[in-house]
Amino acid sequence: MDRIELGRLLTAAFPDGEVEVTGDDGVHFEARIVTPAFAGKSLVEQHKLVYAALGDLMKETIHALSLKTYTPEAWARKR
Amino acid sequence: MSDIHEAIRQTIEQNRVVLFMKGTKNFPQCGFSARAVEVLKRCGAEFKDVNILLDQELRQGLKDFSSWPTFPQVFVDGKLVGGSDILLELFEAGDLQKMLEAPKAS
Which residues contact B44 (CB under 8 A, 6 or more apart)? Predict the structure, then answer.
């Protein structure tokens, strides 16, 4: 698993979103996902959507995935 | 509900804030768990720490119970708040402090 592949997986799971993945050691990653799909969802629910998209990968392959999730509005406010 | 889920449910109901973590609050054994302990301490929050490394059944049971694949896991008033990322984000936004100040949701 590398960040390109993880980025592709997340982009496929959130087609109307913006995904950016960093992390070069193959195990620890940081992913930022901005998508309207998170609207009205708590942070826990947003992260659960991401974990659901990654399924079993989260069990062994990805030891540490640091997530930053935003709706487009939240991301605009943050920048 | 399986025994382990029942045990988890009791723990999160009997303690307002529960941190299921790798290691203990005094000897965290993982960077993410250590960060969660740090945030809770900076909040002045009293919390119960549970070391999941000592109990494989608890470790797996928790992942199913909260449908959350990683540790640490923080519960407040019986509800999953999240892992160390979310805890830090809530702390920085001041939301965690509000959550802990609010009287226990009855």
Answer: none
Order of all β-strands in the sheet with B17-21: B48-51, B17-21, B73-76, B79-82
Domain segments of chain A: what residues? 3-78
**Nearest CB to B86 within list A44, A58, A64:** A44
**3-class DSSP state of B72:** coil
What is the value of pTM for the model shown?
0.88
| B32 contacts A64? CB cut-off 8 A | yes
Rounded to whole angstroms, how far apart are CA atoms A79 and B85?
19
Q: How do the pLDDT tens digits run along chain A, 79 residues long?
A: 889 999 999 999 999 999 999 998 888 899 999 999 999 999 999 999 999 999 888 777 776 888 999 999 999 998 7
Residue A48 to residue B89, Cβ atoms within 8 A: no
The packing angle between helices B84-92 and B31-42, to 10°, is 30
Which residues of B sit within 8 Å Cβ distance of A?
32, 67-70, 80-83, 85-86, 89-90
Helix then strand count (H, E) for chain A reads 3, 3
CATH of domain A3-78: 3.30.300.90
ipTM exceeding cut-off 0.95 for this assembly: no
